[in-house]
Amino acid sequence: MTDRLKLQDPRTQYPQPPFAEQPQQPPGLASKLDPTPDHGETSYQGSGKLVGRKALVTGADSGIGRAAAIAYAREGADVAISYLPSEEADASEVVELIKAEGRKAIALPGDVCEEAWCRDLVKQAVDGLGGLDILVINAGRQQFHNEIAEVTTEDFDRTMKTNLYALHWIVQAAEPHLEPGAAVITTSSIQAYEPSAILLDYATTKAGIAAYTKALSKHLIKKGVRANVIAPGPFWTALQPSGGQPDEKVTKFGQQSAFGRPGQPVEIAPFYVLLASQEGSYMTGEVIGVTGGAGIA
Ligand code: NAD
Ligand code: MG
User: Residue spans with biased composition (Pro residues) (predicted)?
Assistant: First the structure.
C-alpha cells in the first residue's frame, strides 16, 4: 500500500508550526517556502475525471492554483496557466508538470489588474486550447495593514482590481466560449465570513467574490454552465509570507485551525476537480468551505 492510501492522522500528516520567519517581496515564490508546500507534484493521483477538458487557471504558478492545475493535468485536462511575469520560475515548473502528463500547457504571464490583458489572456487560452470548459479564477492579492489609515487608495485599488475587477473582466471574456457542461470556479476565503481587522480590503473582495459568483451562477445555468466558489482557510502558500500576514503570524500559521497546522495546497485540489467534473453536475451557486474545521456561515 502506498503512503497516500495508508490511514493517517490528518493533524500530523503535514508540517505543523512553528515555522521560520521568511519574508518575501509580493507576490512571492513557492520555491522559497520553508517547509516546501505539497501541491501534488508527487502526491496527487488522477483517475481520468477530466479527460480532454480544456482549463484556464489564474494564479496557477504557485499555491492553490498550482495544485488545481497539477490535478487537472493528472485528470487528463489541457491547462492554460496565468501568473505574474516575476513568477516565471514557479510557472515553468508547472508547465513541465503538465507536459509530463502528456497534456498541453499554455503559459500566460501578465498582470490581471489590466483589463486589456484579462481579455487577451482568455483569448490566448481559448485559441491555444481550442476552447474552454473549465475556468478557475484564483489569482489574488493579500497585503495586511495594521491600521485603517495605512490602507491607501492605491492599495485598496490594487486589491479590488486583482481580486474583483479581474474576475469580472475574465468572466466577460470567457462567457461566450463556455458551452453546456462547462464550469467556473472562483476562490473566496474564510475571510469573507470571519474578516480579520488587518485584511480590511482583502476580506471585502473575498465576500464580493462569493456574491459575484452566486449571481453569475444564475446567469450561467440558463446555458447549462455551473459556477461555484471555494472558500479556503489557512493554506501554506507564498501569499502569506509575502505581505499577507505579519512575519510573527507566519511562524504560527495554521495553529488556530482544528488540525493545528495549515492545509497544503494538494488538500484542496480535489474540490477544484469535483466542481469542474461531470460528477459535480448538480452543484452551482455553492460556496464550499475547506477551512480546517472553522466552517463558513
Ligand atoms: P499564491 O500567492 O501562491 O497564489 C496567488 C497567485 O495570484 C500568485 O501566484 C499570482 O500568480 C497571482 N496574482 C496575484 N496578483 C496578480 C496580478 N496582478 N496579475 C496576475 N496574477 C496575479 O497564493 P494562494 O494562497 O495559492 O492564493 C490563491 C487564492 O487563494 C487567492 O485568491 C487567495 O486569496 C486565496 N486564499 C488563500 C488562502 C491561504 O491561506 N493561502 C486562504 C483563503 C483564500
Ligand atoms: Mg505565485
Answer: 15-26
